[in-house]
Design a protein that fits this description.
By secondary structure, the chain is an alpha/beta fold. Helix content is 46%, strand content 19%. It has seven helices and six strands, in the order ααβαβαβαβαββα.
């Protein structure tokens, strides 16, 4: 079992890259153990919005074009998308959805480990996997969460407050 997981962890990045055109391969990254810390480190000191969604989640699919409009009007926002679906999603389908909703250029990850509970716990020990879920992570590392479909006006207000506080 351990060997199988190790093989999957080693091969998944290659499979994700092979499933899509080379230009888009770097955009969809496998979210595995340690990815959450890497995301937080990459965006440290800046306000960060992390949105968890999935292809099999109806509300997520309805809401994704609104996120696309949001990043178009606010290109200064650090947004990270994580496909945290309970079922494995075809990377091509994830990439197509991101492209169709105007989110193809947003930093995007897809759960890449069969041990979903570990990945969810790494993000938030209290989170049980409900999607959509949005985390607002302030410059100071303070985290707040929005359960369900995000009120983008609240996200906008939070982000603007973060920018004002950083001046």
């Amino acid at each position: 079992m351990l060997m199988r997981r190790l093989l999957i962890a080693l091969c998944l990045p290659m499979l994700l890259g092979a499933a899509r055109p080379p230009a888009a391969a770097a955009e969809l990254q496998p979210f595995v153990r340690g990815s959450w810390r890497a995301i937080l480190a990459r965006h440290a000191g800046r306000p960060l919005v992390v949105h968890l969604w999935g292809l099999t989640c109806g509300p997520c699919r309805v809401e994704m074009p609104k996120w696309g409009e949001f990043v178009k009007e606010r290109p200064d926002i650090d947004l990270v998308l994580i496909d945290a679906d309970f079922v494995p999603n075809d990377p091509e389908a994830v990439a197509a959805t991101l492209d169709k909703t105007g989110l193809a250029n947003v930093e995007s990850w897809v759960f890449g480990d069969g041990f979903l509970e570990r990945l969810r716990y790494e993000i938030d020990p209290r989170w049980r996997g409900e999607i959509p879920q949005t985390y607002l992570i302030g410059r100071d590392g303070e985290v707040s969460s929005l359960e369900g479909v995000a009120d983008l006006e609240k996200v906008r207000d939070w982000f603007d407050a973060q920018l004002r506080a950083g001046r």
